[in-house]
Write a structure and sequence with these properties.
By secondary structure, the protein is of the alpha/beta class. It is built from 5 helices and 9 strands, in the order E-H-E-E-H-E-E-H-H-E-E-H-E-E. The strands form 2 sheets. Strands 1, 2, 3, 4 and 5 form a 5-stranded mixed sheet that branches. Strands 6, 7, 8 and 9 form a 4-stranded mixed sheet that branches. Helix 2 (about 70-80) links the parallel strand 3 (about 60-65) and strand 4 (about 85-90).
């Protein structure tokens, strides 16, 4: 039995493959500790996205995308030390180190978070819309309050230089 926990934006947990009522308390406790460890990682930004899978043998698999190899390695090291983690598979992908992509990330972030309807998201300790840029292609991940916010974020991400935009944003209440 395998459960998938997604950390984006507010670092919410999304369960797939098992009914929430059937999850063992130990599984949820382990997931909470791993989420807390990643949330406390000071280099995590809106330009990174990490997903967690935990199997019934307490093996944690990390996937997602981060902007530097150091982040991938440090997140893996921190999670490996979490009490209850039997083993770790760190499959976090490092986004290409590109000045063009870095500038595009900033333009998209400014377009989204400086837009008045999104100021409430920008003021959060951990803004919930994450912006991943790889070779000019933008992917939005995270969680927003409404379909309208999802559509607006997608529209705002259409900045000059973006070769394409994909929205993987979830609306609160969606799995």
């Amino acid at each position: 039995m395998r459960k998938l926990f997604v950390l984006t934006g507010l670092f919410y947990a999304l369960l797939t493959g098992a009914a929430p009522g059937r999850l063992a308390a130990a599984d949820l406790s382990l997931v909470d500790r791993v989420i807390d460890t990643i949330q406390r990682y000071e280099r995590m930004t809106i330009f990174d996205d990490v997903k967690i899978e935990v199997d019934d043998k307490s093996t944690v698999r990390l996937t997602g995308r981060v902007t530097t190899p150091l982040k991938r390695d440090e997140i893996g090291e921190r999670v490996e030390k979490v009490s209850g983690v039997a083993s770790l598979v760190n499959d976090i992908h490092v986004l290409p180190l590109s000045p063009f992509d870095a500038q595009l990330r900033q333009r998209v972030a400014t377009a989204i978070y400086s837009y008045p309807p999104f100021w409430h998201y920008a003021s959060m300790a951990v803004p919930p819309i994450h912006i991943l840029v790889e070779r000019g292609y933008v992917t939005l991940t995270g969680r927003v309050r409404s379909q309208q916010d999802r559509d607006l974020a997608y529209a705002r991400a259409q900045v000059p230089g973006a070769l394409g935009v994909t929205s993987e944003l979830k609306v609160d209440g969606e799995r």
